[in-house]
């Protein structure tokens, strides 16, 4: 499985962010926060693919050849976009967004012969992470 992860590690206890995380953990809200961040990562990854921001872009001839062959090219609204999923581990304060081993994973990791690496998995940015944490703190 190809994944990207966000891990909260090595907090300075005097850090405000560490205090937020500690308060959420004490209230047993951390799983909800990490789940929301994982869903955000899936959304961001799908948007990234659909906006054709993945570098390097596929050539039009490659896309057409794949459409004729399988009807599901990598950057289409088909199977590829629906394979992106997330999982959460509260024990490690970890959110993971990924795709099962196969065509999409090979592109993410650069394991496709004669094809460049195309990293499309995304995590929410720091602003989104902070807003999500604040939402659950204020709730």
> How many β-strand stretches?
3
Please state the CA-atom Rg, rounded to the nearest Å. 18 Å
Percent range for β-strand residues: 5-15%
Strand order of the largest sheet: 1-3-2
Shape summary: elongated
Run of helices and strands: EHHHHEEHH
Structural class: alpha+beta
Q: What are the low-pLDDT stretches, counting only 5+ consecutive residues below 50?
A: none
**Could you tell me how far the N terminus lies from the C terminus, measured between alpha carbons in angstroms?**
35 Å
Domains, number: 1
For the biggest sheet, the summary is:
3 strands, antiparallel
Number of helices: 6
Q: Give the overall average pLDDT.
A: 79
Helix content: 40-55%
Name the descriptors.
139 residues, alpha+beta, 3-stranded antiparallel β-sheet, elongated
Could you characterize the architecture of this molecule?
The chain is 49% helix and 12% strand. The protein is α+β, with helices and mostly antiparallel strands. The chain has one domain (2-8, 19-138). A three-stranded antiparallel beta sheet has the order 1-3-2. The longest helix has 21 residues, at 30-50. It is elongated and about 55 Å long. The two termini are 35 Å apart. The model has no long low-confidence stretch (mean pLDDT 79).
């Amino acid at each position: 499985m190809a994944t990207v992860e966000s891990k909260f590690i090595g907090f300075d206890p005097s850090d405000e962010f560490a205090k937020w995380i500690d308060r959420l953990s004490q209230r047993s809200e951390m799983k909800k926060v990490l789940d929301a961040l994982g869903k955000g990562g899936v959304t961001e990854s799908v948007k990234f693919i659909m906006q054709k921001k993945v570098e390097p872009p596929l050539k039009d001839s490659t896309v057409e050849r794949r459409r004729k062959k399988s009807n599901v090219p990598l950057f289409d609204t088909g199977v590829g976009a629906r394979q992106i999923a997330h999982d959460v581990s509260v024990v490690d304060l970890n959110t993971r967004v990924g795709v099962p081993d196969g065509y999409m994973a090979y592109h993410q990791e650069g394991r496709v012969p004669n094809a460049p690496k195309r990293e499309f998995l995304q995590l929410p940015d720091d602003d989104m992470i902070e807003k999500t944490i604040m939402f659950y703190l204020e709730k």
